[in-house]
């Protein structure tokens, strides 16, 4: 069975007025459009043509949540727990009301994520840079007291990145934070020119926020259309600007580390944060009509299919979504009837559909449960 899915964009403040509108070929919106959710998550289940929402069909059983994401401003710096950490944290918070702002755990699941870029350029912060590289970056910041204090934290022994992040977010380092942000404005470095530009854009949006200095410790990742990045549990990250297709495990567990007015639990953030430094690999699938983004989780898998007027059959497993991102495309299931998929909308194929035929000219993303069990 095939069912069309739509949803109203969520109006988070960091959303864009133009990126989703341009994708769908309409005029810019009057306010921010940040995310469109295609899933059965209780926070915003997708709409069906008959007036119901998708959870009425699935019973809330989908293991993944598929989204369109359009960022004009940086999202909060955040990290997600492993399954074990989520189960323990959710159990500890069982006495808190579901809408309590102090809650860190909304459910007992992990939330690995994959984003694939639709815009020409997408900027993100992902993972932590080795401390020695950040010390080279800080050479461009002069020798004010705050800069010297940050250098001293990064030049010590032990887990210096965890120590530095805890200090920056503690509330006791605001004078040093302000000092480092002031030095950021005049810093110049050929090696770190992109990093400085991106973090300055973050500082412009969140002046005085300790998360700006946390961002200085992170890798800047610049992606092009069709490239993706997988964000595992424990990995500090924040999207900065751009349009993409995002898929994640069905969870709402977020520990925040800055660039937000929402609750920041520094101790819990540090407890689940993986401070192993290093680059986050960029996923660049092989050329071809069907490109798979390989991820090491069983919750979801994602393929991009380019259509050039010739039908493309795809084998699928479990409850599947087909999201259109360009052109004029259709999908056919077992009954052979073609269903149009307007750009910016999706079609849900129930679990008994094992083979879909994609037609037309354009681009779609096929989301389904993962193969790893």
From TrEMBL:
Phosphomannose isomerase type I catalytic domain: residues covered: 2-130
Record-level GO cellular component terms: cytosol
Cofactor(s) listed in the protein's UniProt record: Zn(2+)
Keyword Isomerase listed: yes
Catalytic center residues: 256
Residue positions binding Zn(2+): 78, 80, 113, 237
One Gene Ontology MF term: mannose-6-phosphate isomerase activity
Keywords in alphabetical order: Isomerase, Metal-binding, Zinc
UniProt-listed Enzyme Commission number(s): 5.3.1.8
Domain of life, per lineage: Bacteria
PANTHER family xref list: MANNOSE-6-PHOSPHATE ISOMERASE
Family the UniProt entry places it in: Belongs to the mannose-6-phosphate isomerase type 1 family.
Protein name, as recorded: mannose-6-phosphate isomerase
């Amino acid at each position: 069975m095939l069912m069309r899915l739509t949803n109203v964009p969520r109006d988070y403040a960091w959303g864009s007025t133009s990126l989703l509108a341009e994708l769908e070929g309409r005029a810019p919106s009057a306010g921010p459009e940040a995310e469109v959710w295609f899933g059965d998550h209780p926070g915003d289940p997708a709409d069906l043509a008959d007036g119901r929402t998708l959870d009425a069909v699935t019973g809330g059983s989908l293991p993944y949540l598929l989204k369109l994401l359009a960022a004009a401003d940086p999202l909060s710096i955040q990290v997600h727990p492993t399954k074990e950490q989520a189960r323990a944290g959710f159990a500890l918070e069982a006495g808190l009301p579901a809408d309590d702002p102090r809650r860190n755990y909304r459910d007992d699941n992990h939330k690995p994520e994959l984003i694939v870029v639709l815009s020409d350029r997408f900027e993100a912060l992902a993972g932590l840079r080795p401390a020695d590289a950040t010390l080279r970056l800080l050479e461009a910041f002069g020798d004010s007291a705050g800069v010297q204090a940050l250098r001293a934290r990064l030049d010590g022994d032990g887990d210096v990145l965890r120590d530095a992040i805890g200090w920056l977010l503690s509330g006791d380092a605001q004078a040093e934070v302000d000092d480092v942000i002031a030095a950021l404005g005049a810093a110049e470095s050929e090696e770190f020119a992109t990093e400085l530009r991106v973090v300055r854009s973050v500082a412009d949006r969140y002046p005085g926020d300790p998360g700006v200095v946390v961002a200085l410790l992170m890798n800047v990742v610049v992606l092009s259309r069709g490239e993706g990045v997988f964000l595992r549990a424990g990995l500090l990250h924040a999207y900065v600007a751009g349009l993409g297709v995002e898929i994640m495990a069905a969870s709402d567990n977020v520990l925040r580390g800055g660039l937000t007015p929402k609750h920041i639990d520094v101790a819990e953030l540090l407890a689940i944060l993986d401070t192993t430094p290093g680059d986050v690999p960029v996923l660049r699938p092989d050329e071809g009509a069907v490109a798979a983004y390989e991820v090491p989780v069983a919750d979801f898998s994602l393929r991009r299919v380019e259509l050039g007027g010739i039908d493309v059959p795809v084998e699928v497993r479990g409850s599947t979504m087909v999201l259109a991102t360009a052109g004029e495309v259709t999908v056919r299931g077992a009954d052979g009837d073609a269903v149009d998929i307007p750009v910016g909308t999706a079609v849900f194929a129930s679990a008994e559909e094992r083979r879909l035929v994609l037609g037309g000219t354009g681009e779609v993303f096929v989301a389904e449960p993962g193969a790893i069990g």
